[in-house]
Design goal:
- The protein is an alpha+beta fold and 246 residues long.
- The chain has a domain of 78 residues: Nucleic acid-binding proteins (OB fold (Dihydrolipoamide Acetyltransferase, E2P), Beta Barrel).
- 30% of the residues lie in helices and 22% in strands.
- The protein has five helices and eight strands; from the N terminus they run βββββαααβββαα.
- Strands 1-2-3-5-4 form a five-stranded mixed beta barrel. Strands 7-6-8 form a three-stranded antiparallel sheet, with no helix packed on it.
- A hairpin with a 7-residue loop joins strand 4 and strand 5.
- The radius of gyration is 20 Å and the shape is elongated.
- The chain starts with a strand and ends in a 12-residue tail after the last helix.
- 37% of the residues are buried.
Length: 246
């Protein structure tokens, strides 16, 4: 059995037996891994508190055959995001990040940029002056782009033709914004303000455009649109979604 070392974020845990635990980790080197931590439920286990949800840890695991759980042999805490516990909207945003990483990614499919973005989001959420909704929007756009679900924002998602910036319509089923000609052909569609459209485009670029989203009306529009689109991509409503603010 091959031994692997990685830096991983704990995104899900479940009890396996009276003494052992199953954990799902999102790692920079390996992508998503599911591991069995033997003795992980004991008060004085070798993993200590390294398997707490939203804990960043350095892990060592033994790769098993495809379809079976890998065996976790070591988990040392590298970082805790303690500020999340002091801010309920930030904590729910952290749980939402963990849920999306767990549900939308495949086992052993690494995305270093997405890993870095998840950590950056968890580090800033709950800090002074940071609104959870806009910061989460930046993470969602990064996740959608990395996993191939990014909606079309520059041209019509249906015909690839030019769009009318003064009459913008977004369709999750259609794959993004639609031109005036293609809009009637989509049953599922919603209006999109020019301001929200510009912010969505900026969020997909390097930088901190999310810090400029302060207007409540704009934050609400972006949150509703991203909630709708992520729900469509996932195929169900995320469990944490009702607890997210704008």
């Amino acid at each position: 059995m091959a031994t692997e070392k990685a830096l991983g974020l704990v995104i899900r845990t479940a009890d396996w037996s009276e003494t052992s635990r199953i954990a799902t980790l999102w790692t920079r080197e390996l992508g998503k891994v599911r591991v069995l931590a033997k003795g992980g439920r004991r008060l004085k286990s070798s993993f200590e508190s390294g398997l707490d949800l939203l804990t960043l840890c350095r892990i060592v695991l033994l790769r098993k055959s495809p379809g079976s759980l890998d065996l976790l042999t070591e988990a040392q805490v590298a970082k805790r995001f303690s500020q999340l516990r002091q801010d309920l909207p930030a904590l729910y945003a952290g749980y939402y990040i963990a849920e999306l990483l767990g549900e939308l990614t495949e086992d052993y499919d690494p995305h270093p940029n997405l890993f870095d973005e998840a950590l950056a989001a968890l580090e800033t959420l709950g800090t002074k002056g940071v609104l959870a909704g806009p910061r989460l929007a930046r993470f969602e756009i990064t996740l959608l782009r990395e996993l191939g679900y990014m909606p079309s924002l520059e041209t019509c998602a249906h015909c690839n033709g030019p769009i009318d910036e003064q009459a913008l319509v977004f369709s999750a089923a259609g794959g993004g914004v639609l031109c005036p000609t293609c809009q009637p052909g989509q049953r599922e569609r919603r209006s999109l303000s020019p301001e929200a459209w510009r912010i969505l485009r900026q969020l997909s670029e390097p930088g901190a455009a999310w810090r400029e989203i302060a207007e409540p009306r704009l934050r609400t529009e972006l949150r509703q649109l991203l909630n709708h689109y992520v729900t469509y991509v996932l195929g169900r409503r995320p469990r944490v979604l009702p607890y997210l603010g704008s």
